[in-house]
Amino acid sequence: MVEEPADNPYVRDPDTSFAPVEELSEGDAREQVRRLREAIEYHDYRYYVANDPIVADRTYDTLFERLEALEDAFDCHDENSPTRRVGGEPLDELETVEHVAPLLSLQSSGDADEIRAFDRRIRDRVADVRYSAEPKFDGFSVEVVYEDGGFDRAVTRGDGREGEDVSANVRTIGSVPLHLPDGAPDFLAVRGEVYMPRSGFQELNERRIERGDDPFANPRNAAAGTVRLLDPETVADRPLDVFFYDVIDTSATLDTQTEAFALLRELGFRVNDETTVVDDVDVVIDYRDRLADARDELEYEIDGIVAKVVDFDAREELGSTARHPRWAFAYKFPARTGETTVERIVVQVGRTGKLTPVALLDPVDVQGVTISRATLHNAAQIRDLGVQNGATVRLERAGDVIPEVVEVVEGGDGDFAMPETCPVCDGHVVQEGEHHYCTNASCPAQLRRSLQHFCSRDAMDVEGVGAEAADQLVEEGLVESLADLYDLDRDELAALDGWGERSADNLLAELEASKTVDLGTFVYALGIRHVGTERARALAAAFSLDDLIDASAEDLRSVEDVGPEVAESVAAYFDEAENVETVERLLEAGVSPERRERDDELDGLTVVFTGSVPGYTRSELTELLETHGASVTSSVSGATDYLVVGENPGTRKRERADEEGVETLDPEAFEARILSRL
Ligand SMILES: NC(=O)c1ccc[n+]([C@@H]2O[C@H](COP(=O)([O-])OP(=O)(O)OC[C@H]3O[C@@H](n4cnc5c(N)ncnc54)[C@H](O)[C@@H]3O)[C@@H](O)[C@H]2O)c1
Ligand SMILES: [Zn+2]
């Protein structure tokens, strides 16, 4: 996890109405550059690595263009600026692989003048220009490599030079050829866009919502999240498809994009039928306008079109910058907006307990999609925009799926205030930054999720209560509070759909076995916001359960790694009478959390893991080593004693270990050298 930069105005709900560059002093410009770089790096992380962006693409683009403009105007380029690189870092869990050729970004704009300027730059340098006009698919790009006619590997975009090996997952996509027909080139590297068809996306989200998982914001995030899952079986269950659009390198001879498409078709790759060749930039502009009108009828999301110079010699001649090829241009679609009135603002409670104000709208058609509600994010957003009941507002389909209110066109009346108690359970509401949360862990809106968390492997480790079982237990009314788990009735369980006596007995046995637990694990299981396994252990080391329940935020802050936000969150949790009652009932039911003594066999040892050690989860290992005095950190430095290299390790930590001269241990050596000491 990368920390969100504090106090950076370009991270949350950024104000993108910038003063003209000429009006800035040198000092102010440098300060703005610094903050923009910091914010953009964080947005890149959210978008490329976490698959969970927090600003609309258009907002991101505005920040990015501002940064480019400032770097030019004040001549403060930097090799490490986000304007000089592509995409994000690969995930640690997947193997990193170098690309056959760097996977760059595209020059892009939604402005017709910009693509005309692009066309002039091209025509100044090469003659007889023709463009391949292609839809710009809004999915997830992969490089797929074939050797000797067989699928060799699939790699994500990553930072453009190296990406993650997602072969196992991409292989599950039906339209990706595993073998090429006879006569195929010995070596072939192609690029394509993995996407989730609209219908499949809707279905997947419905299933996720039913199960208590957060829905994906849009098909792009869903596709990206899926391709990078660690379990190919889950991937195979998800509706993914792919369009191939570039041959990057091959042992065959190709002279044009037209030949490349012909080769792809001939070899059985799925290509898109909208692609065409044109010789005039005005035709490219018409092409985009036509696709913009048709986009809602397509089964896949597109966010513009790409114009690429057809002739490969001309491409060579034009070359690339560090960030993008000079021979291609993405001409993006305009924002989809509409106007309507707010009928009422209501507050919804999400599965994490977060309160989200939502505007109920007079239904309006925004380019083919009827919109009757839009998120207002939080109270600050409502205040900043000035949204009220009856206001006329302008909407935008951000990420092109989730509608958002972007502007008040005409005010309404009445003041909106966040409720002081939870609209679902009447529990206390606490404010944290700009957000409000219900503190009751047994709030019906949150119960499925808290239940699943409570039973998870790193928590109470009650096998058999996954998403589906948690849903059933809550829906059938067997569990209304976490504590009800230990009062479950065998016959009632056995009567549940798909259960039977055996499953009932298994669950009861699991529950019985879970009663002996160490205090840190128990505190983690309660699901207090911001309290992960490590903080829970630290709290358990510092307080007994009774003391923890009574501790003030100030007391809590004496614990290392507990800052004000965490302290407030823990205190608020135990201020909620319902939560204390839940804990008391759990103890009465026989759950007996014990404080574990700390041993010191491994005192002073600093260990880093990459990849997985068979037989243990990462947090089991961390707990084990830490209770014996070692510290487990997430990155390799000169202070690291050992890097444990398990299965499917990342490359970065190993490179660092090499540089720093840190000794590496495989799982056997780890067992022999460290675990055997305990
Ligand atoms: N919201 C955020 O926080 C956030 C953060 C980072 C990036 N972004 C968005 O991502 C954009 C930059 O992303 P990028 O650099 O990944 O993409 P890009 O816009 O530079 O385009 C390159 C990508 O286009 C895709 N593509 C689709 N169809 C194609 C075709 N026919 N031919 C060639 N390529 C095709 C490929 O995946 C390729 O990697 C930004 O403009 C921004 O809108 C948003
Ligand atoms: Zn509630």
Automatic annotation (TrEMBL):
The keyword DNA repair applies. Residues 1-29 are annotated as: Disordered. Its cofactor is Mg(2+); Mn(2+). It is an enzyme of class 6 (ligase). GO terms for molecular function: DNA binding; DNA ligase (NAD+) activity; metal ion binding. The active site is at residue 136. Zn(2+) binds at residues 422, 425, 438, 443. Residues 597-678 form the BRCT domain. Pfam families: BRCT, DNA_ligase_aden, HHH_2, HHH_5, OB_DNA_ligase. Its EC number is 6.5.1.2. Belongs to the NAD-dependent DNA ligase family. LigA subfamily. PANTHER family: CHROMOSOME TRANSMISSION FIDELITY FACTOR 18, DNA LIGASE. DNA ligase that catalyzes the formation of phosphodiester linkages between 5'-phosphoryl and 3'-hydroxyl groups in double-stranded DNA using NAD as a coenzyme and as the energy source for the reaction. It is essential for DNA replication and repair of damaged DNA. This is DNA ligase. The lineage of its organism: Archaea, Methanobacteriati, Methanobacteriota, Stenosarchaea group, Halobacteria.
